[in-house]
């Protein structure tokens, strides 16, 4: 992906999120937005004062909010103007007038959870996406076939809860029996809505809202990392590991960072990407596992 495209995707994602916040009646602090999206204050001010100049925004004590009379009532021309400006319609598989519904219909927002600015190309699979969305909103059980490493597996009576976009890839978060699972959308085929409905478990939606990733194993392992000064600013600016907490700031400018993970693959790729500036202090077995993987890689090359 080119730098221009990546920057455009980040802009689209940021503006979409700000629009959703405004439509939900939030009072937005520019400083907090700048920190949330890792941009400078001037960029956020330009978003609010220039890119959203057509919106009826009120500014009280430095916070921006949408005129209450307009909450949820922006017309299609407003949204199309925004879509043309930011190109955010590409974030969703449905285009044109459906864009209004995806951004501003609160019921649709309960079916979608977007994490990260990039997106999977769903060309040709929009009908399946809408079918799953319908099942989520109507609390209808579904059946489908799923591509696994060992072949195709059939599922029936699955309770769909959310379509989640994590790191640009779409997943279906659903309960298979008593187990909450994440199914890769791209591997789902022949989905069908059943005649059986289900009563949503609110704790599932809570779990999904609190998760930093798509690993839905309720059994979490605490990890502790040591981060050098050269990489510390990145960990301060945003969470780079699941459930990240800065435990201690070291005298040399480094950090001790903790997190909670459900699977080793939730942490090892991140640590490898930041070598030699990050080391796993505990569990020690994860550091040893990563070092063994690196030795095997170097030996084979």
What does this structure look like?
The chain is built from 11 helices and 12 strands. It is of the alpha+beta class and 301 residues long. The protein has 3 domains: 3-91, Arc Repressor Mutant, subunit A (Orthogonal Bundle); 126-210, SH3 type barrels, CATH 2.30.30; 221-300, 2-Layer Sandwich (Alpha-Beta Plaits), CATH 3.30.70. Strands 3, 4, 5, 6, 7 and 8 form a 6-stranded mixed sheet that branches. The radius of gyration is 21 Å and the shape is flat.
What do we call the CATH homologous superfamily of the largest domain?
Winged helix-like DNA-binding domain superfamily/Winged helix DNA-binding domain
Structural class: alpha+beta
pLDDT < 50 runs, ≥5 residues = 85-108
As a percent range, the share of strand residues is 25-35%
- Give the CATH architecture of the largest domain: Orthogonal Bundle
For the report, how would you describe the main beta sheet?
Answer: 6 strands, mixed
- CATH fold assignment of the largest domain: Arc Repressor Mutant, subunit A
In round numbers, the mean pLDDT is 80
| Strands, total number | 12
Overall geometry: flat
Count of spatially separate domains: 3
Order of helices and strands: HHHEEHHHEHEEEEEHEHEEHEH
The DSSP helix count reads 11
Cα Rg: 21 Å
Give the proportion of residues in helices.
Answer: 25-40%
How far apart the termini lie comes to 27 Å
The top level CATH class name of the largest domain: Mainly Alpha
């Amino acid at each position: 992906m080119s730098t221009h495209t990546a920057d455009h995707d980040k802009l689209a994602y940021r503006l979409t999120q700000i629009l959703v916040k405004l439509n939900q009646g939030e009072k937005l602090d520019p400083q907090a937005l700048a920190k949330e999206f890792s941009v400078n204050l001037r960029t956020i001010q330009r978003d609010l004062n220039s890119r959203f100049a057509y919106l009826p925004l009120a500014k009280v004590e430095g916070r921006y909010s949408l005129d209450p009379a307009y909450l949820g009532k922006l017309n299609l021309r407003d949204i199309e103007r925004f879509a043309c400006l930011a190109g955010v319609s590409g974030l969703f598989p449905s285009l044109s007038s459906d864009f209004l519904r995806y951004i501003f219909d609160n019921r649709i927002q309960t079916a979608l959870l977007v994490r990260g600015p990039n997106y999977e190309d769903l060309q040709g699979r929009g009908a399946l996406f809408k079918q799953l969305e319908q099942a989520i909103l109507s609390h209808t059980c579904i059946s489908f076939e799923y591509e696994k490493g060992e072949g195709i597996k059939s599922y029936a009576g699955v309770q769909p809860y959310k379509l989640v976009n994590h790191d640009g890839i779409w997943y279906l978060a659903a309960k298979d029996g008593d187990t909450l699972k994440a199914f890769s959308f791209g591997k789902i085929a022949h989905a069908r809505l059943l005649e059986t409905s289900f009563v949503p478990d609110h704790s599932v939606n809570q779990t999904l809202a609190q998760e930093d990733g798509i690993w839905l194993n309720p059994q979490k392992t605490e990890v502790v990392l040591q981060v050098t000064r050269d990489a510390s600013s990145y960990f301060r600016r945003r969470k780079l590991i699941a459930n990240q907490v800065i435990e201690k700031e070291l005298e040399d400018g480094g950090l001790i960072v903790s997190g909670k993970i459900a699977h080793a693959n939730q942490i090892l790729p991140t640590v490898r990407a930041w070598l030699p500036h990050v080391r796993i202090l505990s569990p020690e077995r994860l550091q040893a596992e990563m070092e063994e993987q690196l030795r095997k890689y170097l030996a084979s090359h």
